[in-house]
Amino acid sequence: MKKLGILVPLVTPCTRTGDVDEAGLRGVCRDMLRAGCHSMFVAGSTGRGPWFARQDRARICRTVADEAGKDVLLFAGCMAPGLTDMVENAEALADAGAQIAVATAPGYFNYSQEEVETVFRRFADRSPLPVMIYDIPVFAGMKLDLGVAARLAEHGNIVGFKDSSSDIGRFEELARLLAGGGDFYLLQGKEHLLADALRIGASGFVVSLVQIDSRPFVALYRAAEAGDHARAGAIQRKITKLLGVVESCFARRPETSTLFHLLNYALQARGVCANITLDHEGECPGWLADEARRTLAILEEARDL
Q: In Å, what is the CA distance from 14 to each residue of 32, 49, 56, 66, 278?
């Protein structure tokens, strides 16, 4: 597999009414790059890409492309309920500086594996950018079969696969199936599986919680690359503890905005940006702010390992 490192699924700083905060976006980008992250992903789930209009996604992409520079690989979410919008998103984001288009299975309707494979192939045929397939069952409503993933990897314009299925056995099988793909990216998308995935041969990882404090995640990646599996494992245990806190928050408050409130608190506390939440999401509950402080403390402990 081709090495990539840490791909950051950037949040989108904005006003409470949803106007993009370009200065805040640049601040988040700088924070991640200074910590040692390797590449940026705009308009994904963490960046609430599907919420924003196409012109806003393009503005977000253009801002990050300008801030990060051409040497930082820039991925952009092209998710949409239908193929035409997916392709038009890819065209707009290519014009805005994206280098790789990211696509999930289209939402809203229920699809068979064969139907989704056809949609992905047609998208890859028409996309002006190389394509990374993003398998995220919690939002797409389905998990891609391993055979589908392996066949899609043979397409000339599909260059990567992100697995957020939370199944390390499946990830290991994917790595085996894709082992001959020297120019293919295989990315892990779940925080508790990072060290195991890197040991298996992952190209890197892309996880939302990196934006609470990216430094322990960078340290884990560097330790794994250096073969220091003891240190990588120790940091992984702290990150898994962090994930446990976040999961307990979702158990109490299952709305997606729970994540945005947690990240918002951490980014504000670290002075990175002013806001990433929207009016309809309300104010951060006091108990959730307490849990956000716990996540920062856990990652502070991880930095000392």
A: 18, 12, 11, 18, 8
pLDDT digits (tens, 9 = 90+) for 2-52: 999 999 999 999 999 999 999 999 999 999 999 999 999 999 999 999 999
b/e per residue 208-241 (b: at least 16 CB within 10 A): bbbbbbbbbbbbbbbbbeeeeeebbbbbbebbeb
Task: Report the C-alpha gap between 135 and 164 in whole angstroms.
Answer: 6
CATH of span 5-227: 3.20.20.70
State the Cα–Cα distance between residues 192 and 240, nearest whole angstrom: 5
Sorted by sequence, the CB contacts under 8 Å of residue 100 that are 6+ apart come out as 73, 74, 75, 76, 129, 130, 131, 132, 159, 160
Distance, CA of 265 to CA of 281 (rounded, Å): 14
Q: Kind and range of the H or E element at 185?
A: strand 185-188
Name the DSSP letter for residue 8.
Answer: E
